Amino acid sequence: MAFLAGAAIRLGYTFAPELYDIPLSYDSQRSLIDNNLDIIERLGYQKESVEPRVFYTREDLEKTETLLRENGVAKSTARIVCVTQTSRTQRRGWPVAQFISVLNHARSKYNADLIFAGTSSEAEDIDSLRAQISCSSVSLAGQTTIQSMAALLASSDLVLTLDTGNMHIGRSVGVPMVILAPAWAPSIEWLPMDFDQINVFLGDRDPRSPPDCDIIQMNAAKVIEALDHMLTTYPRCDAARRYRAERNVSSIQR
Predict the structure, then answer these.
(1) Which 3 state secondary structure label does DSSP give 118?
(2) Could you tell me the domains of the chain?
């Protein structure tokens, strides 16, 4: 089998180029996706820059729509998914008062359905934030898998999110997003830059914060402006929801 496979080639990014047949140098000005696609090109294949995709089954999509209906989410209003929590081991939060200002605006101006997503361990913090909003909202914390989260985001009109795993799922289904991210992170590696339907805010850490408390400081008015721009440019649209939702349905059933 080894003979049929041909000679092995040691290729990749390394600090010891003398040990590799084809050593590669990581380019910090390019994304991780672009850097990794260089490996494909060096192997003699044509590379194509593609966005990541998360697929789900039609059953996932139908269960997600049922869950939304059971929670009183209507098709006639804008759906905004809110991701307000992030890893407890790598805090990248935004002050609750700022979130409240933005979400109250979204509800009053667009009559938006506010849908909070997260893990079961984040449910208590999410409910604490929801209790301070001057309108009703829905929490699906702990009620979604990766696949059903993708179906939820694809079926929504906008995602307001911190720099989290759910942000990457939103990117994979092409939903418009407003992303709040810390400026000290390597944005080019992870964040979806230069997309018309995605607005990334890089906030600064407050110098008064303790070293273990990485809270993003950002003006809520700017985020409200970005939210208005997104919902004006990409308004609530059942057809756009259906297109995104159907585009990511897999023909392979689990």
Answers:
(1) coil
(2) 9-50 (no CATH), 58-247 (3.40.50.2000)
